[in-house]
Amino acid sequence: MSSRRLVLAVVATLLASGVLVTATSASTSVSRPAGAPDLAAMALAVHDLPAGTRVDKQGYVRDPDYVASYTREFSIRGSPLGRSLVLGLEQTLEVERTAAEARATLGFASRLFRGRQGAQLLKSLIVEGGVDARDVVVRRIRTPSIGHGALVIPIRVTVDGVAVELAVVLFRFDRVLGTLTLVGLRIRGADTDRLARVAASRVRAGLLPTSTAAPTLSGTPQPGQVLTATRGAWRGDQLAYAYQWERCDAAGAGCVAITGAIAPTHTVSVGDLGSTLRARVTGRNRLGSASATSGASPVVAGPAGAPTSAAAPVISGSVQVGATLTATTGSWTGEPTSYAYQWRRCDAAGAGCVDIAGATAAAYVVSSADSRLTLRVLVVAANAAGPGGAVSAATAAVP
Question: pTM (2 decimals)?
Answer without folding.
Answer: 0.85
